[in-house]
Amino acid sequence: MVSSTYCNRFIFTSFFPTLKLEKRLCLIASFIKPLRPSVTTKWCRHEVAGVVTEVGSKVEKFKVGDKVGVGCLVDSCRTCQNCDDNLENYCPQYTLTYGAKYRDGTITYGGYSNSMVADEHFVIRIPYSLALDAAAPLLCAGITVYSPLRYYGLDKPDLHVGVVRLGGLGHMAVKFAKAFGAKVTVISTSPSKKDEGIQHLGAFFLDSKGRFY
Q: DSSP letters along 191-210, please?
């Protein structure tokens, strides 16, 4: 169970489970487990999506039954300059979703846990219309490409955006760029990615020999 000192966190389950919130703690549960996990085991399952099953007395943003997601952090000191600037990933006392320790000493196992606790500050709401298994990748690969597209002003119509490689991140980048209204070209050394890029994603394709499709 979660320590009562975590009065601003909640609990929820990952992917298809149910989520609990205690005060402001959140618990995330998963159906997939690592083998012999320990605090040093790097089980990086941090694309966690679930449903709130319990809320703490000080939770304000969520209620039982809400669909939510958590990224790579579940807590930080919330008092340093980085936290004040919304740069919690630079906080010297941040708590990772996996392979770290909560303030009470318990270990975080990310989405491989039966349950998981996170401060509500690090939890986002998922629309009820969006399936949890579809939402989860947005919390890692999705934000990894969405952020630079927005930061560098590539979120405007009629731009021509090139995406190098068509893996997990590449797929997300193509989809976001097209949603922003850009013309997108996939740049790849793998001819096998041509059909995927052109037919399934609606992008142009440039191979390593300079052939443009």
A: TTHHHIIIIIT--EEEETT-
Query: What is the sign of the dihedral through the CA atoms of 47, 52, 54 and 55?
Result: positive
Look at the block and give the residue holding tokens 């807590």.
75
- Tell me 148's DSSP state: H
Domain shared by 56 and 37, yes or no: yes
In a domain, 213, yes or no: no
DSSP-derived 3-state class of residue 42: coil
pLDDT tens across 152-167, in order?
A: 999 999 899 999 999 8
Whether 132 and 174 map to the same domain: the answer is: no
> Which pair of tokens denotes residue 165?
């490689």
Say what the pTM is.
Answer: 0.72
Which residue range is the domain that position 195 belongs to?
146-207
Q: Which two tokens stand for residue 6?
A: 């975590």
Instruction: Compute the CA torsion angle 143, 146, 148, 149 (nearest 10 deg).
Output: 180
Nearest to 65 by CA among 24, 18, 109, 104: 18
Residue type, 98: Y
For residues 203 and 184, what is the distance between their CA atoms, to the nearest angstrom?
5
Task: Mark whether 90 and 16 lie in a shared domain.
Answer: yes
87-139 confidence digits (pLDDT tens) = 999 999 999 988 888 888 888 887 777 677 888 899 999 999 998 888 888 88
CATH code for the domain in which residue 198 is found? 3.40.50.720
Looking at the fold, whether 130 and 37 belong to one and the same domain comes out as yes
In a domain, 54, yes or no: yes
Residues pairing with 95 in the sheet: 75
